Amino acid sequence: MAKIRHTLTALVAGAALVLTGCSSDGEGSGSSTSAAADGSATESTAAESVTVEDNEGEKTIEKPIESVAVLDNRSFEILDQWDVPITVAARKLVPSTLPDLKNDESILDVGNHKEPDLEQIVAGDPQLIVSGQRFQKYDEQIEQMNPQATLVEFEPREDKPLDEELTRHVENLGKIFDKEDEAQKLVDDFNKALQRAKDAYDGESTVMAVNVSGGDIGYVAPHVGRTYGPLFDLIGFKPALQIEHASSDHKGDDISVEAIADSNPDFMLVLDRDAAISSGEGSKPAKTVIEESTPLEGVTAVKDGHVYYAPEDTYTNENIITYTEILNGIADQLEAAQK
């Protein structure tokens, strides 16, 4: 794209020189020269910025982008895959599956969302700040501290389908960083995985989603629950159990293991929160917790081995790449059950 722009500019500039030379031969050529110059200026201006619409409205980012601060969990893996240079990051929140980014001490570290060092963003003097998820609550403060920067935030909106929101996120990042083809590839992969999971589901088998944290099993509600909730809508899963006042709590809703067992799901979807964060006292791998739970021994999903465990970094890496992996993993489980 840059090569094309430079070629166009050179052609326009060349045309301007020819017209300038002709101006001494007759009147009226001066106006043509002026028009060519104006056209060149317009082309140059268009090439020096990009406008996107985030959760707050239209945002214009000046180019080239020479310094970027990234605070959004969903964006780390995408930008790392695209080799986008990062000046400042919430490195303590970077998934452990991205060690080169997480451990790069040349990148100023904002820390985590609980006690962030927002002055590190100021020190990095970013032109662009990619915020979202855990850092949303600091957006206004960050913008006040960095008036020279444009802050964008594409956190999935609660009243919109998750597939559309994940697509919106990656497509806008692609537009900002001139990676539109790469973004489209991620969208295509996601849509294929979603369709595969839909095709593999029989429409009747009951499904239960849970979150394991600190050795405890929490209930992940359809529609609103962490990570898996929206998949009930996207795939059309039949819930094994529904409760009143369900939430999106990061540990899942408090419900007895016996109640989960009584619902006897045909399939279980498991999120291991501890695998993605520093393990604390009492934490165990989700697989161990599920398989060693006496109340769950007789559950159809456990007996038949129809339990899907999300990638270990999911809790801190819920982007379109992660969801593509989850959907393909679920499809594997569903397809295997049909054989």
TrEMBL record:
<feature type="compositionally biased region" description="Low complexity">
    <location>
        <begin position="23"/>
        <end position="50"/>
    </location>
</feature>
<dbReference type="GO" id="GO:1901678">
    <property type="term" value="P:iron coordination entity transport"/>
</dbReference>
<feature type="region of interest" description="Disordered">
    <location>
        <begin position="23"/>
        <end position="57"/>
    </location>
</feature>
<keyword id="KW-0813">Transport</keyword>
<protein>
    <submittedName>
        <fullName>Iron ABC transporter substrate-binding protein</fullName>
    </submittedName>
</protein>
<comment type="similarity">
    <text>Belongs to the bacterial solute-binding protein 8 family.</text>
</comment>
<dbReference type="GO" id="GO:0030288">
    <property type="term" value="C:outer membrane-bounded periplasmic space"/>
</dbReference>
<dbReference type="Pfam" id="PF01497">
    <property type="entry name" value="Peripla_BP_2"/>
</dbReference>
<keyword id="KW-0732">Signal</keyword>
<dbReference type="InterPro" id="IPR051313">
    <property type="entry name" value="Bact_iron-sidero_bind"/>
</dbReference>
<dbReference type="InterPro" id="IPR002491">
    <property type="entry name" value="ABC_transptr_periplasmic_BD"/>
</dbReference>
<feature type="domain" description="Fe/B12 periplasmic-binding">
    <location>
        <begin position="67"/>
        <end position="338"/>
    </location>
</feature>
